[in-house]
Design goal:
single chain, alpha/beta, Aspartate Aminotransferase, domain 1, Aspartate Aminotransferase, domain 2, two-stranded parallel ribbon, 14 helices, 13 strands, binds pyridoxal-5'-phosphate, binds (2S)-2-hydroxy-3-(4-hydroxyphenyl)propanoic acid
Length: 396
């Protein structure tokens, strides 16, 4: 049977990491994959995580199976992070959360559930978006449609086009929204724009699906949740797939969650029962460690404060790199305006560099960025910045 199987194409982002590893040049820089690096180029384990793990090692009593929905305390703290302490969707029992393996696993569980148990089978995704969205949703059996989002001329949001495209969606269609730090553009909606999108979803009975992978990497944990909370205040139904890979640095623990918000408590219970049956048929129940780390941190005031401080440090280092990047490009003799980079949010900068320029950066200068021109600012340091900017100056 395997003689008929064709070789899969390389993933546009992970394939780049493989090429980077195979590169023998010693001045090479990987600004492809979205992994946070500190000033020394490392991705260390957060101190809050290490303390939580020490506590777990001393107190954990069993490795028995979790339920399909995972760690209960974890699911509670996830809801508080998403909606705040006193949101109506929590007090009215309209939100139910299941732990799932990372943001990717959460998106996949959500998509499988939607395809099998609801009449919603079409999802609108932004153009551009994270490359894996198309992959996850089409593999689960959702039909994909695109709404415009980015305006190349201004390096900004094309909000009118976004609304115009979503106006053509039909009742029950799903709309994928990046909670904050849009990947790959770094361009987010402001609160007034969020309200307009929420009103449109309400008027046309569209169902928002939030991909929330970067809470705390934009302006702050609460600030970054404003869009989600505005939408949750407006529409009766939505789904959230969130991830702690980046904001807790728990990449390889595969920890995220899928949250359904229904019009009332009874519908939430029914929908959640089918989320659980979807999980049962995929991996039965999730691994515990990542969830226990997150709940241990968020249920302990000291550890929680330490996590907030560490997250702030990551956020501020990235912001500092954005400013330095813009300045260093100027210093390297680049005349083109790159100020828009300091207005973008999160790990990524959408540089506007074209495919030829991206290829030259890799082939001639060993600087790796994604084919779309997306640069991981989180991989920049004061040390590699001059190398990066000199290379960009050359290919421009
Ligand atoms: N969604 C977006 C927009 C992302 O950028 C990522 C990771 O880079 C994810 C989801 C999934 O993250 P993970 O599955 O590693 O938690
Ligand atoms: O850089 C990005 O956009 C992501 C990173 O299992 C990533 O693709 C890498 C591996 C993974 C999920 C996300």
């Amino acid at each position: 049977i395997f003689s008929q199987v064709e070789l899969a194409p390389a993933d546009p982002i992970l394939g780049l990491t493989d090429a980077f590893k195979a590169d023998v040049r010693d001045n090479k820089v990987n600004l492809g994959v979205g992994i946070y690096k500190d000033e020394s180029g490392q991705t260390p384990i957060l101190k809050s995580v290490k303390f939580a793990e020490e506590k777990l090692l001393a107190t954990e009593k069993s490795k028995s199976y979790l339920g399909m929905e995972g760690v209960e305390a974890y699911n509670r703290v996830v809801q508080t992070l998403l909606f705040g302490t006193e949101h109506a969707v929590i007090s009215q029992s309209r939100a139910l959360t299941a732990q799932a393996p990372g943001g990717t696993g959460s998106l996949r569980v959500a998509a499988e559930f939607l395809v099998r148990h609801t009449s919603s089978n079409k999802i609108w995704i932004s153009n551009p978006t994270w490359a894996n969205h198309n992959n996850i949703f089409s593999t689960a059996g959702l039909e994909i449609a695109e709404y415009r989002y980015y305006k190349a001329e201004t390096h900004g949001l094309d909000f009118d086009a976004m609304l115009a495209d979503l106006q053509t969606a039909e009742a029950g269609d799903l709309v994928l929204l990046h909670g904050c730090c849009h990947n790959p553009t770094g361009i987010d909606l402001d609160n007034a724009q969020w309200q307009q999108v929420a009103d449109l979803c309400l008027a046309k009975s569209l169902v928002p699906l939030f991909d929330f992978a970067y809470q705390g990497f934009g302006s702050g944990v609460e600030e970054d949740a404003q869009g989600l909370r505005i939408v949750a205040n407006t529409v009766p139904e939505l789904i959230v797939a969130n991830s702690f890979s980046k904001n807790f640095g728990l990449y390889n623990e595969r920890i995220g969650a899928v949250t359904v918000v229904a019009a009332n408590g009874d519908e939430a219970v029914n929908a959640f029962s089918q989320i659980k049956s979807t999980i049962r048929a995929s991996y039965s129940n999730p691994p515990a460690h990542g969830a226990l780390i997150v709940s241990t941190i968020l249920e302990d005031e000291t550890l929680k404060q330490l996590w907030h401080d560490e997250l702030k440090e990551m956020r501020e280092r990235i912001a500092e790199m954005r400013t330095l990047f813009v300045e260093s490009l100027k210093a390297a003799g680049v005349e083109q305006d790159f100020d828009f980079i300091s207005r973008q949010n999160g790990m990524f900068s959408f540089s506007g560099l074209n495919k030829d320029q991206v290829n030259r950066l890799r082939d001639e200068f060993a600087v790796y960025i994604v084919g779309s021109g997306r640069i991981s600012v989180a991989g920049m340091t004061k040390t590699n910045m001059p190398v990066i900017c000199a290379a960009i100056a050359k290919v421009l």
